[in-house]
Design a protein that fits this description.
By secondary structure, the chain is an alpha/beta fold. The protein folds into 2 domains: 1-82 and 169-250, P-loop containing nucleotide triphosphate hydrolases (Rossmann fold, 3-Layer(aba) Sandwich); 91-167, no CATH class. The chain is 35% helix and 26% strand. The strands form 2 sheets. It has a 6-stranded mixed beta sheet with strand order 6-7-8-3-9-10, sandwiched between helices. Helix 3 (98-109) crosses helix 4, helix 3 (98-109) runs parallel beside helix 5 and helix 4 (124-136) packs across helix 5. It is globular, with a radius of gyration of 18 Å.
């Protein structure tokens, strides 16, 4: 797929002793596209996201974000440079409102430690950004609701809103559809489709119907290695993928 490459991983490998969790994986994320990574449990998908986000360093390989080599950068530094991610588990503040959750995320990017005389909650752009990102993900009508009272799907939407509050260019989403019903899944897919216009998105997901609907490219991992990368049609007809993951009847 042609497009501006915003995040690139080259020959990424991660070892823990004799265990190779990710083995020579290369991936390119481009603006305007959803790149899904699929595979069975233990295939190395979440480890790949952790490498790209900076949660831990690769044993070997290189990572570029917006044209810069960020292989040795910390996770907070990558986040400030334009990388946002969500996790398999909810990472919201359940006793805070939707708006407060989004404001705290915005505040992490727009820090003004020298303005100690200002109340952080009243700081200019953060409240505006909080409202904007909540509206963008479909939570504009529940700004003052405690996050812990949201439905499961709304909590996942809030996590994406919190990512957007940091003004990322790249989104790494780890199973955002997990546990969702059909209606919530439809809302999330519509959100991802809208977001990809301005972002490069990496999606790790087990819902194959959703993956083949939303993904522009798909990478298939088995035992830490890539066995195929291509369009959804390419992956559907790939004999190695059918054997290793999708099954003979896929």
């Amino acid at each position: 797929m042609s497009g501006e490459i915003l995040l690139r991983g080259r020959a990424l490998t991660r070892r823990w002793g004799g265990l190779v969790a990710v083995n020579g994986v290369s991936v390119e994320l481009v603006r305007g596209a959803v790149h899904a990574v699929i595979g069975t449990n233990g295939a190395g998908k979440s480890t790949l996201i952790n490498l790209l986000s900076g949660e831990f360093p690769p044993s070997s390989g290189q990572i570029e974000l917006l044209g810069q080599d960020v292989t040795q950068w910390s996770q907070p530094r990558r986040a400030r440079a334009g990388l946002g991610r969500s996790y398999q588990r909810n990472t919201i503040y359940p006793s805070f409102t939707v708006q407060e959750n989004c404001r705290l995320s915005a505040q992490a990017r727009y820090q003004t430690p020298w303005a100690w005389w200002h109340d952080a909650q009243s700081r200019g752009p953060t409240q505006r950004i909080a409202r904007e990102v909540a509206q963008r993900v479909g939570l504009g009508e529940v700004l003052q609701r405690e996050a812990g009272l949201l439905s499961h799907g709304q909590k996942r939407q809030l996590e994406i809103a919190m990512c957007l509050a940091t003004a990322p260019k790249v989104l790494l989403l780890d199973e955002p559809l997990a546990g969702m019903g059909a209606e919530e899944t439809e809302r999330m897919l519509a959100l991802l489709d809208a977001l990809k216009k301005d972002h490069a998105i990496l999606l790790v997901e087990h819902d194959m119907d959703a993956v083949f609907r939303i993904a522009d490219r798909i990478t298939v991992m088995v035992n830490g290695s890539v066995i195929a990368t291509g369009t959804p049609d390419d992956i559907r007809t790939n004999a190695d993928v059918r054997e290793a993951y999708l099954g003979h009847d896929a």
